[in-house]
Amino acid sequence: MSFKSLGLSENLLKAISKKGYETPSPIQAKAIPPVLEGKDVLASAQTGTGKTAGFTLPLLHILSENPKEKFRPVRALILTPTRELAAQVYANVKEYSEFLEIRSAVIFGGVNQKPQAAAIRRGVDVLVATPGRLLDLQNQGLLSLKRVEIFVLDEADRMLDMGFLRDMERIMKLMPPKRQNLMFSATFSKDIRKLANGILNHPVQVEATPENTTVDAISQKVYRVAKGKKTGLVIKLISEGNWQQVLIFTRTKHGANNLTKKLASAGITAAAIHGNKSQGARTKALSGFKSGKIRVMVATDIAARGLDIPLLPHVVNYEIPNISEDYVHRIGRTGRAGASGEAVSLVSADETSYLRSIEKLVGMKIPMEIIEGFEPDPNASTEPVKQGGGRNRSGGGARNSSKKSKSNDSKGGNSSNKKRNNRNRNRNKRSN
Ligand code: AMP
Question: Is the dihedral of CA 46, 51, 52, 55 positive or negative?
Fold first, then answer.
């Protein structure tokens, strides 16, 4: 199977070979043909599978085949949940369209809208956007979606998690009903299927990897440890293992900040990346991490979603997620592009039930180890931690499953009242 045999144009093939891709990834091989045929597609694929090229390449092919007009209306809209993902998708669109007469732009919140509005005024064929800023500009009359021919909804599951359902419904009404729709999601809950039914028209379904199975190349390990000894253990693992590029997940922003400080005082360069950080700070942290200047990046789930970090060797779950599917997303950041990776989870007594749910989901018992000096606390309760803003889709930690909130990127850690969850959700929405 080659990109050429998929029927992509010469100018796209040129850009693909410039990127150094030799063969289409499984999701690309499966998604590109039906998209080129003009069909709606529902794809199950997470970051790291090559999904972005899976929708961008055929989309660019279709747009460049059809005649352009002098006044360039938005003909393709790609909607993403986070700014980072929007910026990343846009970078891909730019690269793949290098040899085409296609104009593109990206819009997201947290930065001045003027340059974004000016780009749209000049005319763009492909617009990559987060929902908040898109609606903002539309409300101000600076943007029209009336001529959209292709709509891509990327990371639909995260879109729902972040509370963007109403925004998405509003956006849908701004586009003509006759259009091609592509929807990508890493997981397929009932809500996602409902959303898909409302958007897609007789979609072709494609899948990159079987749903909710962990990649074979990733070696997984659990360290049973006392809660108070986690920081010491993570420092030991990084230093003694001489790990040079580590992504650590914490459950809360507060936890991410705290751990970053402690790592720094232990002489390990680290940066936190979460929803409270400015766009500039996040971009800087990410590029420092990619270039090797920063050894550890500490992130919350929402902030980490969509980050493109190729060939990540180490992922650490400082706290394991109460949403079992998030575990799969997190460890999916290692072992990309065929490289092997290692995912370790530090599990204290109160996380026991979450671990059980994860093992059930991935269908295996994750090998467990105890390190001398960092033993678990035999007297600690196995009662699940009450999680501030913790979402609970999958039944992990059944005890707090009644506390439904849309974001686990929340501040602080203990009480989980509705008001605060709403506040967090609104804050998330505003910042996108
Ligand atoms: P994505 O899942 O779209 O975030 O892509 C993950 C990574 O795989 C990105 O760094 C892409 O540049 C890279 N990639 C995408 N398609 C291919 C391909 N066919 N061959 C090799 N690398 C690819």
Answer: negative
Ligand 1 midpoint to CA 188 (Å): 22
Which atom of ligand 1 is nearest the CA belonging to 19?
12
| pLDDT tens, the chain, 432 aa long | 899 999 999 999 999 999 988 889 889 999 999 999 999 999 988 777 889 999 999 999 999 998 767 778 999 999 999 888 899 999 999 999 999 999 999 999 989 999 999 999 999 999 999 999 999 999 999 999 999 999 999 999 889 988 999 999 999 999 999 999 999 998 777 888 899 999 999 999 988 754 344 455 578 899 999 999 999 999 999 999 989 899 999 998 899 999 999 999 999 999 998 877 777 888 888 889 888 899 999 998 877 766 666 667 899 999 999 888 888 878 877 754 445 678 999 999 999 999 999 888 877 889 999 999 999 998 888 888 765 444 433 333 333 333 333 333 333 333 334 444 444 444 444 444
Other CB atoms within 10 Å distance of the CB of residue 232: 16
Residue ranges around ligand 1 (CB below 6 Å): 21, 24-25, 28, 47-53, 308, 310, 337
- How far apart are the CA of 131 and the centre of ligand 1, in A? 24
Q: Whose CA is nearest to atom 19 of ligand 1?
A: 24
Which of 17, 18, 22 minimizes the C-alpha distance to 2?
22
Query: Residues in the chain, how many?
Result: 432
Q: Does domain 218-369 have CATH number 3.40.50.300?
A: yes
Question: CATH number of the domain at 4-207, please?
Answer: 3.40.50.300
- Structural domain spans, the chain: 4-207, 218-369
CA of 302 to the centre of ligand 1 (A): 21
**Chain centroid offset of residue 347 CA:** 24
Taking the whole predicted model, whether its pTM rises above 0.85 is answered as no
